[in-house]
Amino acid sequence: MIKPELKHNYCKAYDYNALIRFIEDKYNIKVRKYQEYYKGDMSGNDCPKPSGKPYLDFWHWLIESQIEVKNDCQEMFFIEDAYEDKETPKWVKEILKMIIDNFETDNEGVMHLFISW
Questions:
Q1: CA quadruple 107, 114, 86, 29: dihedral positive or negative?
Q2: Which residues of 47-64 are buried (b: 16+ CB within 10 A; e: fewer)?
């Protein structure tokens, strides 16, 4: 009987910080202060208002509703599902669309992200 060897099966992943820098540079936006760029209605529940003013932070939306992160981790982000979800805020969909238009997902609409800070 032959004992199987341990194999390292890593998938390709985008560096989250580099991906976001690319999107911010290409579209001249800041995803952590998206309220300064969003042209839609900010009066509804889609736009958090912790201090009475709209605060649209893509990173906070991502870690609060989509993925659990820790430093130096690789995560699966079901980005196409998030984009199609009727519960996803419109301002988030704008950012997701920019990402989808510029970066590849796998066959199941999953984007693999390496996250480090």
A1: negative
A2: bbeeeeebbbbbeebbee
Residues 6+ apart with CB under 8 A from 34: 56, 57, 58, 91, 94, 95
Residue 59: HSE in the Cβ half-sphere, 13 Å Cα cutoff: 14
**Per residue, what are the HEC states of 63-83?**
HHHCCCCCCCEEEEECHHHHH
Q: Average pLDDT of the chain?
A: 90
Per-residue pLDDT of 22-61, as tens digits, reads: 999 999 999 999 999 999 988 887 888 888 888 999 999 9
Q: Report the alpha-carbon distance of residue 51 to residue 5 in Å, rounded.
A: 55
Element (H, E) at 115: strand 111-115
Rounded distance, CA 95 to CA 36, Å?
13
| Two structure tokens written together for 75 | 């995560």
The alpha carbon of residue 50 and the mean position of all alpha carbons in its chain are separated, in whole angstroms, by: 21
How far apart CA 43 and CA 56 sit, in angstroms, is 12
